[in-house]
Amino acid sequence: MTSILELTLLPFDLSQIQALHEACWPEVPFDHLLDLLSNIVRRCEQQRAWALTALQGDRPVGFGQLSSWTRGAEISDLVVSVCCRSQGIGTALISGLLDIAQQQGFQEVEIGVAENNTRALALYQRLGFEIKQRIELDLGDGPELVLYLKLALTGQEAT
Ligand SMILES: CC(C)(COP(=O)(O)OP(=O)(O)OC[C@H]1O[C@@H](n2cnc3c(N)ncnc32)[C@H](O)[C@@H]1OP(=O)(O)O)[C@@H](O)C(=O)NCCC(=O)NCCS
Questions:
Q1: For residue 159, is it within any domain?
Q2: Which atom of ligand 1 is nearest to the CA of 113?
Q3: What is the number of domains present in the chain?
Q4: By CB distance 3.0 to 4.6 Å, which of 43, 116, 147, 155 could disulfide with 48?
Q5: 88 exposed, middle or buried (CB, 10 Å; 0-12, 13-18, 19+)?
């Protein structure tokens, strides 16, 4: 468990789903979110993923996961409640996930971001991630450009 002032990062568990739905994914149908998060819990139990919830007091305000794939480790599903953005919570979640990646022995971590998500891209680059690939993907809303960034962990720490 990591605490930064009143912000706490805890391993995700399904008891947080209702509050996380309201705070972070109000536009996503609950059943869809339940499927996504249940799958993440299964992967966490298999030590193939590690998911963190960010709480302010006892209120969930953010979520992110680190996944282990054959090609390496990836941070995904990063989200902070609209009301709580630009307070360092996204940075804290990434930092917590990078700590886990380091503990698990990963040497680098990948993160994907739509090219037009300029704020998230700026955040990742501020934390030292570097663009490695630019791919056109259709994630459901038609073709879009997705950037894949990587951060080498050896001797690196998120700030
Ligand atoms: C991306 C996201 C997780 C960042 O969380 P956050 O708590 O706002 O991030 P932080 O406060 O740690 O960092 C903010 C910095 O990141 C960028 N940023 C990201 N989102 C921002 C937002 N909504 N408003 C302002 N700046 C934002 C800015 O460069 C900002 O720089 P600053 O430190 O000079 O203010 C959050 O904006 C979010 O949930 N966005 C919607 C979901 C999403 O796009 N997820 C990423 C998918 S790849």
A1: no
A2: 48
A3: 1
A4: 43
A5: middle
Report field, pTM of the whole predicted structure over 0.85 = yes
Find the domain containing 47 and state its range.
2-152
CATH number at residue 106: 3.40.630.30
Q: Which atom, in ligand 1's list, is nearest to the CA of 120?
A: 1
Question: Using a 6 Å cutoff on CB, does residue 90 contact ligand 1?
Answer: yes
Give tens-digit pLDDT for 77-109. Answer: 999 999 999 999 999 999 999 999 999 999 999
Residue 42 lies in a domain: yes
- The mean pLDDT value of the chain amounts to 93
Return the SS3 of 150. strand
Q: Are strands 108-114 and 7-11 parallel, antiparallel or unpaired?
A: unpaired
Give residue 155's pLDDT band: very low, low, confident or very high (50, 70, 90).
Answer: low
Q: Is the CB of 87 under 6 A from ligand 1?
A: yes
**Structural domain contains residue 158:** no
What's the 89 CA to ligand 1 centre distance in angstroms? 8
157 falls within a domain: no
Distance 148 CA to ligand 1 centre (A): 17
Give yes or no for a contact between 113 and 149, defined as CB atoms under 8 angstroms apart. Answer: yes
Residue ID of nearest Cα to ligand 1 atom 28: 119
How crowded is residue 57: how many other Cβ atoms within 10 Å of its Cβ? 8
